[in-house]
Amino acid sequence: MNANRPWWRPDGFTVYAVIYLTFIYLPVLFLPLFSFNKSKYIAFPLKGFTLQWYQKMINTPDLLEALMNSVKVGVAVAILSTMFGLLAAKAVTRYRIPGRGAVMGFIMVPLVIPGIILAISLLILISQLDIPLSLWTVGFAHMLLCTPFAMLVLISRMEGFDRCLEEAALDLGENAWMTFWRVTFPIVLPGIVASLLLTFTISFDEFVLAFFLTSTDPTLPIYIWSSLRFPTKIPAVLALGASIFVISFFVVAFAEWFRRRGVKTDSTSGF
Amino acid sequence: MSDAIISFQGVSKHFGSVKAVEDASFDIQRGEFFSLLGPSGCGKTTLLRMVAGFEIPSAGEIMIDGQPMSATPPNHRPVNMVFQNYAIFPHLDVRNNIAFGMRKAGLTRAELDKRIDEALELIKLPGYGKRGAEELSGGQRQRVALARALIKQPKVLLLDEPLGALDKKLREQMQIELRQLQQQIGITFLFVTHDQEEALTLSDRIAVMSEGAVIEIASPAQLYESPGSRFVADFIGSMNFFEGEVTSSTGNTMTVQTGALGTVSVSDSRAQMTSGQKAWVAIRPEKMQPVFSDPGTGINTVTGTMGPSAYLGDRSHFYVHLPQREEPALVALQNLERSMNHLHKPNQTVWLQWTSDAVVVLPRD
Questions:
Q1: Which residues from B are below 8 Å from A269, CB to CB?
Q2: B interface test, pick of A162, A174, A271 with most B CB neighbours within 10 Å
């Protein structure tokens, strides 16, 4: 492309890119904008600046409880599905397993089953087993959904690194367990962080499974959905949405920074 | 009593129906630089990996310093390995790579630092301790891999084609350094390579392998000057083979009747063959002396015509067509003088001469 082109006469690709990014991010930016608007109604023109919705958000126990429910389920699901994903990825990439293709296929199936089908089947199963619906059942369903994602991320990371490194650690006198902690884990760590973030995010904003499988403790998406019926509750939800947006921006920025430096430094030296 | 540091006792390794190593039995002496040489797929790397403990023999036993190793996992064997791709830990710097295996050595921080500094000195990379693995060149990675293994003071250092990834100049330099290092520290080296020149340069003894079997074990000079089979003669260096039949055999002297060379007399032969036996007469290219005027004597001389030639700088190679032989003979000549005319004219008549101790006789079946 011509580097001498002045910025006020962009070429077709630049125009396309700008329109594309606007289309994606403009609606999201309305969230913080209206969260500071001094009006109950989400409409232009803006009425003036206020922090009252943030105050209201903090003073709405239901909302905070729903947020905490989602965080609890999300963290538990992220840790467990990443652990299972790591074990599965190690098994698939390091050992010869009979029927490996079939096993992989079965684990990956939840990726392509429509959420609503999975939700109904789980609801039937769980009620047949007489298990009461709770955050536990939501968490269980989310793990089913998240483990294949964790596996995909971790398998690609495990395949990317050289088996000789693990053999070298064995050769230098470490047993299998210490080889994992001193070589495999630090090298796979960026993949683990990516998997934790991905699975947490999936669980955090998952609606259909949570809707079917929760009882009196709603997760955040369920709470927001039910709030839509009450216009007075909406501005506080906007404030919450804006807060989550800012927090996730910093989390992703941190994760990216960590991923880039993670490869080079030594975080697990035995000395 | 021999002082064997490694003893292979009927070692075999089968992968399904593939026989990677078949009944290997030999000893490696303490302090030796020993090479396993053979074409790719000959089983040399499998044999090395069995010593390291990454593969378990299907049959037989490997003894290291008198101890059977079958039940010993890799992390408890008194050997260390330099991997083909060096396997430098990418998340650790040079110091921590070298220190990796010393966690259980029971050294204080200061003792360990001293040992690492010595190791860096040994591999001529002092001051490189803080470098990351990605900042090292191929040759430097190789040295770090060496230091990381040697600091463990193994009884045997295993090297899996460690010079294969380096360019020619660096490879030749590393060959010399490796040989000096081995003589300096006196540890037994077990070296795997497919490069016969490298094996000849480095080794005290070489085991030539083919299709899972050890064909011959001997010193570099013996393998080159007095090979025991046609395979070894052919694999190591270049060789001209002439079909023949033994006509007389007395003591160390044999006479062989060949089609292309006429009657050849051989002295100091390794193979003791009887009259009437089929034989190969083999002569190295540099041991056939070309003469461009009739030497007058018919003994150990053959007349031919000049074929294509190649100028290689230090020497020239040319092919000589002989009557009664389809394949031309390869002749190598040192270019002892500076001259722009080392290439000879095709179709020129040339006489090739050799001495009777330049000839090797091998059984032909």
A1: 92, 96, 99
A2: A271
